[in-house]
What does this fold into?
Amino acid sequence: MPALDDTLTGFHDYIGVTFAPEDEILQSTRRAMADGGLPSIAVSPSQGKLLNILAQLAGARRILEIGTLGGYSAIWLGRALPEGGRLISLELEPRHAEVARSNIARAGLAETVDIRVGPALDSLRMLHADAREPFDLIFIDADKPGYPAYLEQALPLLRSGGLLIADNTLPEAVLDPAGESGAKSYNTAVAAHPQLTSIVIPALRGRGVDGLTVSIKA
Ligand code: SAH
Ligand code: DHB
Ligand code: MG
It folds into this structure.
């Protein structure tokens, strides 16, 4: 992703310090991820805060996350849920799920967050078969080439008026008319989708500029 210059790094730090200071739980979650050898690719604190606000705004009681890693974004989202709310998070790597479960338990969210291990497309198929209550918010943040398929599989699981959010949706590939990436195809698809009203929100991350695409379902 494009690197930040000094001014943008300053803005990034200012936003984090002012709006999204991490408490002890979030700090130890990050530490446990590093100690467990997980990549440091979780959402930034300010993106976590934005996810938390969007979940509250959506009145979310049921959230689906695709791509758990160490549970960092799940904790920001899980904290937006009311008593009895539920977050289902899908993760391919058993080792990531193990670190996430321990972080989520420390956050007091063990009863709220349900991590399902396996390829997300398989877990999504099972969710379809379940035919449970639809989700109020779905957050896509797993392998990027999978985004178009996750869109197709996740959208029927989202309630009317619900929010669909995807991370890492401002890759440099969008600047090149011939550039290809799963996230770019995802943006094109949601922007043109008759059931969705969408925008990408640019986001400063420690490592550069990125984006979150937010869509509301008609
Ligand atoms: N949402 C997390 C970051 C997720 S990183 C946070 O912000 O805290 C992406 C995760 O997706 C990784 O843990 C990776 O193992 C997982 N992943 C990759 N391919 C997947 C697949 N096919 N199904 C489910 N998870 C997958
Ligand atoms: C990377 C960042 C992410 O937010 C993610 O979900 C996957 C990968 C990265 O910087 O490589
Ligand atoms: Mg991400």
Residues 41, 141, 167-168 surround magnesium ion (ligand 3) (CB under 6 Å).
